[in-house]
Amino acid sequence: MSNKILTVSVAAYNVEKYIQQNIESMIIPEIMDLLEVFIVDDGGTDQTAEIAKKYEEQYPETFHVVHKENGGYGTTVNYSMAHATGKYFKLLDGDDWFDANHLKYLIKALRTSDADVVFTHYAYGCDEKNLRLIKRHHMHNGYECLMKDFVPRKPVGMWCITFKTELLRRTNLILPSHSLYTDQLYAIVPFSAAKKALFIDLPVYCYRVGRDGQSMSVESRIRHKDEMLRICRKTYEFCETQRNSENYRYILRRVARFHVIAIQTYLLLPLSDHNRRTIKRYDQKIRREFPDIYKGAARCQKMGIFVSMMRKTNYMAYWLLKIYPALSGKNNK
């Protein structure tokens, strides 16, 4: 039986500038024996794998470097889930890193936990000296509850989530290949079977912003709009299958927020009546096919208010973007 408490899946595609910081954030003597880290080089063309292999040679019981043909982000997660021996499972992008002290705290909590999912916070910034804390829950350290009783005010992304590995396998989660935004499925599907949640009031994950090519940059969102819409569709259809689930409220709120993000992506396109009508057609199609998601989008805080305003004005409020371009969400985290 494995003594590993946490398996970490590192998606490492052409991140040679950042992979050293990523790996060294997990080199913590007190917990190395409890960590299993798969650094999955997804067909990269730079020195990422070579850099990572030096750490694998030094810590062979912890770090495992995998080089495979390019299949997209989801396939790196699929590989790690299939080979994980840790009690719990967490994602880490290759250009991001963990807070070492808070990772130690998380590992300590996971050793004795029986929760299906553990919620933490995250921080973001361009480097470790310029981080902003983002809280996605307001529970104290060690608070536990049934998952059905937790409905966050804001969506919880993969940065804040640690799943029990057995839960991931029980839900038969397999992420699509050659697509961005598959982390949205990862952060939604396992909740169909989650019963118990544990909360830790610390930021473990540090998310780097300002790097060219990031999937949530304005340019990338526009370029990969069709991929986002395909993943959106998968989340809508999955949500519909969970109407009788005790965690339906949580899943619905998370999927409704993703619908808002899809609308925001349309708002990033050049202002035109064609794009206004495209938004209207898309949103009204969701109203017909997935009415709960349509209604839920209106309750998604500030952007939900703007979406409601567009709906009430036959989407003519769209033109407010001429005066208030920030309504598109370009500056939102």
| CATH architecture descriptor text of the largest domain | Alpha-Beta Complex
Q: What is the CATH topology classification name of the largest domain?
A: Spore Coat Polysaccharide Biosynthesis Protein SpsA, Chain A
The main pleated sheet reads as:
10 strands, mixed
- Look at the helices and sheets and give the structural class: alpha/beta
Characterize the structure shown.
The protein is an alpha/beta fold. It folds into 2 domains: 6-208, Spore Coat Polysaccharide Biosynthesis Protein SpsA, Chain A; 218-328, no CATH class. The chain contains 12 helices and 10 strands. The protein has helices spanning 19-24, 48-58, 73-83, 100-112, 165-170, 182-186, 218-223, 225-241, 248-267, 273-289, 291-297, 301-312; strands at residues 6-11, 35-42, 63-68, 88-93, 97-98, 117-125, 132-134, 143-146, 161-164, 196-208. β6 and β7 (132-134) form a beta hairpin. The longest helix has 20 residues, at 248-267. The protein is globular and about 60 Å long. The model has no long low-confidence stretch (mean pLDDT 95). GO terms for molecular function: hexosyltransferase activity. This is Glycosyltransferase.
